[in-house]
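To the wet lab folks,

You asked to see what we're planning to order before we commit. Fair enough. Below is the target structure as tokens, and below that is the sequence we designed to fit it. If anything looks off to you, flag it before the synthesis order goes out.
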């Protein structure tokens, strides 16, 4: 048992370390997109960074400080609803992004890329920002701000992360007009929002999609218990192998696609030799998934 426990402990430690490294990478991507392409070209992004940008253009107050202060309040909400595990990584992401915003601004001081090509600036900036948020979400983290609001809504409703963020951020982008006095910049802000949301959904494989698992393992009880902890049901089916004649237990699981990585991790930690079949499903209706929509 000891070698197994030691191996599992190392796997968990490596997984957590990898998550934090990926979150840091995502924050670097986001910082580049925001401060290199968007901010110098007066293009508004969404969420707390958008608010920080508006405050910066209006008063000159550094964006990293506004970003950090607002997120402090939102993180208290995340701690209560999303739990400590999500929130601690989000806190890490907020600190990392705050640090790298200062570093990137110092390294790129006086640099104005694509100053006369605002459309390319907003596309490239949004691509970097969307990739950064997607990488953070895939590692159970967040950049804070409307990402936290999106994660909270997504926990209870089957709505994609990018779509929730798009709705939350439209007001912030539109309000930039009162500072910039330029509707063209507002339009570029909406383009940035769309591209960022699209890239985010591609990175996290669209939260609306569901997957189906068939799992064959002698340790089905242990695996099933861990999957139940994800608030996903497990149905155990009695089966017999035709060739060997041996009786088997097959677990049938339906889950959100974003949970597939976690389920594979659970299986690999408990029984690396388990036989697993995963497939995408067109629609899943019932508790925890979509509601049946038919015309009466």
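Sequence we intend to order:
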């Amino acid at each position: 048992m000891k070698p197994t426990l030691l191996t599992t402990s190392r796997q968990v430690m490596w997984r957590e370390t990898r998550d934090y490294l990926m979150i840091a990478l995502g924050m670097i991507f986001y910082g580049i997109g925001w401060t290199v392409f968007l901010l110098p070209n007066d293009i508004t992004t969404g969420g707390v960074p958008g608010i920080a940008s508006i405050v910066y253009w209006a008063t000159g107050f550094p964006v990293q400080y506004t970003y950090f202060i607002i997120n402090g309040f939102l993180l208290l909400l995340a701690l209560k609803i999303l739990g400590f595990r999500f929130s601690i990584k989000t806190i890490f992401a907020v600190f990392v992004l705050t640090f790298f915003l200062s570093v990137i601004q110092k390294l790129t001081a006086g640099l104005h890329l694509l100053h006369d090509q605002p459309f390319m600036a907003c596309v490239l900036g949004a691509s970097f920002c969307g990739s950064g948020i997607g990488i953070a979400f895939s590692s159970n983290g967040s950049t804070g701000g409307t990402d936290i609001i999106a994660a909270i809504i997504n926990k209870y409703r089957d709505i994609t992360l990018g779509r929730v963020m798009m709705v939350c951020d439209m007001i912030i982008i539109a309000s930039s007009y009162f500072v910039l006095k330029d509707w063209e910049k507002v339009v570029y802000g909406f383009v940035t929002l769309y591209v960022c949301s699209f890239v985010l959904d591609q990175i996290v494989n669209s939260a609306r999609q569901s997957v189906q698992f068939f799992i064959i393992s002698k340790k089905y009880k242990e695996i099933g218990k861990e999957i139940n902890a994800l608030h996903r049901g497990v149905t155990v089916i009695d089966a017999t192998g035709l060739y060997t004649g041996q009786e088997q237990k097959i677990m049938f699981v339906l889950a959100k696609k974003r949970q597939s990585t976690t389920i594979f991790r659970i299986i690999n930690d408990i029984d690396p030799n388990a036989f697993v079949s995963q497939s995408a499903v067109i629609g899943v209706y019932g508790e925890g998934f979509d509601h049946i929509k038919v015309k009466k």
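Structural context that might help your review: The chain has a mean pLDDT of 80. Strands lie at 210-216, 234-240, 247-256, 275-281.

Thanks,
Computational group
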